Fold each of these.
Amino acid sequence: MTITLYVVFAALLGFGALVLISGELSKKRGPSRPGHTAPGRVALAAIMGFGVIGLSIKAVALIMLNDAPRLTDVAAASRSLPTQSHEFAESSGVQGIRYPGRTRSWQALPAKAPGTNPEHDTPELIALGRKLFFDTRLSSTGAVACASCHDIMSGGDDGQQYSTGIEDIKGGRNAPTVYNAAFLKRLFWDGRAKSLEDQATGPLMNPVEMGLSSPDEAVEIVNRDPDYVLAFRNALGGPVTIEGIATAIAAFERTLITNNSPYDRFVRGESGALTNQQMRGMYLFDKIGCRRCHQDPVFSVAGDPVAGPYRSFPVFKSSPYVHKHDLTQDKGRGGNGVWRVPSLRNVELTAPYFHNGAVETLQEAVRVMATAQLGYTIHEAGQSRFRVLRDEQARPVLVEDKILAERDIVDIAAFLESLTGAPNPSEPVRSARKD
């Protein structure tokens, strides 16, 4: 029976009881005068009748609950995930994988960023942007290019705690990767740039990075090269402008997409692309909450067209890792401890980590995030620990601490390594990194 039939049956049973009770009361009290009904008899019959209806509905509910699985059984089933348990969407064009008991499928990175227009980003414009990206003449010393801090032959960054600009001056924050930056709606650690074009011109005039005095100086430098003048005319149909420089560099950066990682191949249906350890790390990454801020396919909410790109960090300032790595000295966006969430793609290649470049290894970075952002405690064996809370009558309530084992940290880091892919530029590029 459905719930509707159960309720109808209970209501009819109660109504029948109401009629029987009313009849019995009439016999007991005798007939009333014609046209009159004793108020007490009606009230008593109604109360008793509706009471029977209520008891009937409760009985039906108890019967149905008795047949339902216990909550403890449901919880135990949700925690049990076989190491290789996964199912793939088989229909053509579906790019997702769904775990049993999970509601949101994993997504692979598209080959093109949203808003990419092949008619605009022509081969001529991309080639022009590529040349500008590697040109050290776009700095006051003639020694620094975009590629100096964003080595696309490695992780898309420079592997230093702080990047080195003109006159060997060090910057104040770790250089983010340029890989997949086209998917992010906010750029730089504080999110001050809202597009690749906006981001491209900032370092040119930054006194620590490339040190040009003005946009006009950048245009003047480019105009001195007849090849550039011709390339701008062919690609953009006009003279050299600062807007054109930014447009060309952005067009090149939109080609730096790494959607061929083991993770992407796994999601698309290649079962052997991830190891058992990486699959376990993938499940934990979702289960403990990492995925809420590092959403696939970009692995950052800054790549979500709807979600806000910023998060407070660190949330749990009492974490020992916060003090160990001095994570609160720089206050972030507006001095409020707010940061644009970075993408975790190619994170294996972009050490050292965080805005201050203070964390050397990926496993240590996972420890930092687990404790300082998600409130977990790391225990060697991962055994559950309980705290006793008492109410005003000293009655105990047991609360289980959020515990991760070292094995969990290692497995999550292994999953993050599966996000490493290679860009597919139109032709090989040289490395700008100096050893």
Amino acid sequence: MTDINQVIDQMPLEVYERLRSAAELGKWEDGSVLSEAQRESTLQVVMMYQARKLNQTEHFTIAAGGKINELSKAELKKQFRGESIAEFKAEEL
């Protein structure tokens, strides 16, 4: 059996993205549903990959070392200040 650390170290980004999508949607690309055990295992692999290979700083992502990034309300406001999500004209409402 291969060591999970070796699997993570050798995993291409494309495979990680497919696993992340499967964990988020609860189904594989072909539409077949993940069992609960598959979903748990897939989520664990995704989190390990994020912790070891990605340098994420977004809110509620896995940072290096396996810590969860939790930004304060002030940090989130600062991050999104000045960015409008959507703009509507009065007649569109």
